[in-house]
Design goal:
The chain is of the alpha/beta class. It is 33% helix and 23% strand. Strands 1-6-7-8-10-9 form a six-stranded mixed β-sheet, with helices on one face. It has a six-stranded mixed β-sheet with strand order 5-4-3-2-11-12, covered by helices on one side.
């Protein structure tokens, strides 16, 4: 199903991903969270819609009656923007796939588990976190099935949150991309798997823009005559985001100063 978003004159659409809040430690995460909130303040001046494209949290598991502690500033800001009528859409990433209705009920923000397609002011967008798409990475694709399996999810949910979340944080922090200590390297246009995937999609359906996160490397690649793949980068190293002004989509870097 294709979503339609009406973009009033002068309004823009913003895209960001991979905040990885919680990583690598509470202090660094809090500083980054403030930076994200300040960015949201900035973009809310002309935002018609904001897409958060996965891995907002380094780990998020929502129990039936319990959510992880923290992130109050971000959640409060998202609530305020929604209450002021700004549309927000959230995609899960591979680090925060275990959502369970909180964003929908508490923030009136829809959460998407799979890539979605949009018509925004006549331009066609394909948007998703990007994990598990394209060739290769069979180990992860299998793991994703396990992680998203309802029985496995239920088994994890009955472990007391103090243990469950500690365990998950341990594994999440072991993952290299979560710490952001090492910069991802560009593999070349032919080897970037989300570019390969996008080209496959273009064989049967036209899109003007493919917007993904996951790669932690800002990119803007031509994948068809009139199609581009934009990777949103991350907020561990790049503080990058994309903005669509109704005509064109551009990668940008947050000029927000460090808030010390
Ligand atoms: Mn990520």
């Amino acid at each position: 199903m294709q979503h339609h978003i009406h973009l009033p004159e002068g309004k823009k659409v913003y895209f960001a991903s991979d905040f990885h809040l919680g990583a690598p430690n509470a202090t660094a995460s809090r500083e980054r969270e403030k930076r994200i909130v300040q960015w949201l303040n900035e973009v809310s001046k002309d935002a018609g819609h904001i897409f958060l494209v996965g891995d907002i949290f380094d780990f998020w598991f929502e129990y039936k009656e319990v959510i992880p502690k923290g992130y109050t500033r971000l959640l409060g800001k998202l609530a305020e923007l929604r209450d002021n009528g700004i549309g927000i859409s959230v995609f899960i990433g591979n680090h925060d796939m275990w959502m369970n209705g909180y964003f929908e009920e508490e923030l009136a923000i829809p959460v998407y588990y799979e890539p979605q397609t949009y018509d925004i002011g006549g331009k066609l967008f394909y948007i998703g976190h990007g994990d598990g798409l394209g060739p290769g990475d069979h180990g992860y694709k299998l793991l994703k099935k396990v992680f998203r399996n309802p029985v496995c999810r239920w088994l994890f949910s009955v472990i007391h949150p103090s243990w469950g979340i500690a365990l998950a944080n341990y594994f999440s922090r072991k993952s290299r991309s979560a710490t952001g200590m090492e910069l991802e390297k560009f593999l070349g246009e032919e080897n970037e798997w989300l570019a390969i995937y996008s080209k496959e999609v273009l064989q049967h359906t036209h899109f003007d823009y493919f917007i993904y996160g996951h790669r932690h490397l800002p990119m803007d690649l031509q994948v068809g005559a009139n199609s581009r793949y934009i990777n949103l980068g991350d907020w561990l190293n790049y503080f990058s985001y994309a903005v669509f002004d109704g005509t064109n989509t551009e990668l940008k870097y947050s000029g927000v100063k460090d808030l010390v």
